[in-house]
Structures are given as C-alpha cells and as structure tokens.
Design goal:
The complex is a heterodimer of chains A (116) and B (107). Chain A has 116 residues and is an all-beta fold. Chain A has no helices and 11 strands. In chain A, strands 2, 4, 5, 6, 9, 10 and 11 form a 7-stranded mixed β-sheet that branches. Chain A has a 4-stranded antiparallel β-sheet with strand order 1-3-8-7, with no helix packed on it. In chain B, 0% of the residues lie in helices and 50% in strands. The chains are: A mainly beta (116), B mainly beta (107).
Chain lengths: 116, 107
C-alpha cells in the first residue's frame, strides 16, 4: 500500500525559501508523476506543479518563477522548493501521486506558516 | 486557465437525503473532471474520475454525470460520514484547477 508523508519546517521567514520533502513508501516513485497541491486555511485547493523522474514537469504559472520540484529516486522522495515566500504562501502543502488525470493518493499534508 | 465554478457553496441536508452539487467549466474539458471529498483536517480523497467513473472502494451512492461543460455529483441517501466538503477538478489542461468547494452540512 503506497503511503506519502510530507515533511519540512513549519515556519519560514518572508523572502526565504520554503523546502519540503515527500517520502513515498510502499512503491517506487519512478513510475509516476508527483504533484504538489496547497490549501490556505479555510480556502480551496491550488495545484502547484508536477514532476516525473525523466525531468518532465509542469508548473502553475502563478508560482512558476519561484518553484522547483525534483525527485530523488534513491531515497524515494519528492522535493519542493519555493523561493521568495510571502504570507500568501502560508498553507497546508500536500504531495500527491499524479495519475495524469487524477490525484490518486495524497499525503496527510504539512502546515507551513510564513512569518517573521 | 480553466475556471471551475461550483454551486452551491454550501448545502444543508439530512441523513437519507439526496444532494446534488454542480461544477461548471469555463471551457470544454473533454470529460476530464474529477471529484474529491475532504473532511476537516484531512487530505482530499478521490471519489470519481473521468466525470462518472467511481473510484474503487467508493460507495455506489456517489455518482457523477456531465452535460457539456456542466458536471454533477450526486450523493443518494446521504450518510453521516458524507458530511464533508466536495471539490471538482479539471484534468484537461495545465494548470490543473479546482472548484472552490461545496460544504455539505447537517441540517
């Protein structure tokens, strides 16, 4: 049974870089695309982007200039880096296995607050 | 970007009721419409994909349909565990976009 677990600092200062890791257990990350999705408190869902081990990726234009996603197949991990963060980046961040047309499996999410 | 507009934003219903949620896409999405259920403090859960295909393990009281750019999620015989927020999502093009959510509340 595939399980995802996000991890990273819960607090990031404005203008700094937010770095998160999604550790996948129960299956290889090399077979799928992996997406990051975020949700500000009490609000809806925003897809940030997706990445494949081949390097193929798609990013949301809303964050494209600040976002980098990557895979580490040796650790079975998916990473997100979002630089120059502001309070608007405060949200719960989810990683999800991307079945091209559906987000099939989600991690429980990790809360990130941007504040000085 | 394709805009997804859900209605209503919230609905109050009783156990046993039938609830219908609508999602309208700003342009054609070729049936690439997904429905998720989210409970407080939890990640969304996949319910229906390709507009009407029930995900394995999801109760048959959930169903999806489409008419052009309008998509519908129907929950028949609402159960206590169905009180949650429901989101639609288009998978036709990038960026993937979600509706704003519909909260199903207990009357």
């Amino acid at each position: 049974q595939v399980q995802l677990q996000e991890s990273g600092p819960g607090l990031v200062k404005p203008s700094e870089t937010l770095s998160l890791t999604c550790t996948v257990s129960g299956g290889s990350i090399g077979l799928y695309y992996w997406s990051w999705i975020r949700q500000p408190a009490g609000q809806g869902l925003e897809w940030l982007g997706r990445v494949h081990k081949t390097g193929d990726s798609n990013y949301n234009p809303s964050v494209k200039s600040r976002l980098t996603m990557s895979l580490d197949t040796s650790k079975n991990q998916v990473s997100l880096r979002l630089n120059s963060v502001t309070a608007a980046d405060t949200a719960v961040y989810y990683c999800a296995r991307d079945g091209h047309f559906v987000f099939e499996i989600w991690g429980p999410g990790t809360m990130v607050t941007v504040s000085s | 970007d394709i805009q997804m507009t859900q209605s209503p934003s919230s609905v109050s219903a009783s156990v046993g009721d039938t609830v219908t949620i609508t999602c309208r896409a700003s342009q054609g999405i070729n049936s690439w419409l997904v429905w998720y259920q989210q409970k407080p403090g939890k990640a969304p859960k996949l319910l229906i994909h390709a507009a009407s295909t029930l995900q394995s393990g999801v109760p048959s009281r959930f169903s999806g349909s489409e008419s052009g750019t309008e998509f519908t999620l129907t929950i028949s015989s609402l159960q206590p565990e169905d009180f949650a927020t429901y989101y639609c999502q288009q998978a036709n093009s990038f960026p993937r976009t979600f509706g704003q959510g519909t909260r199903v509340e207990i009357k």
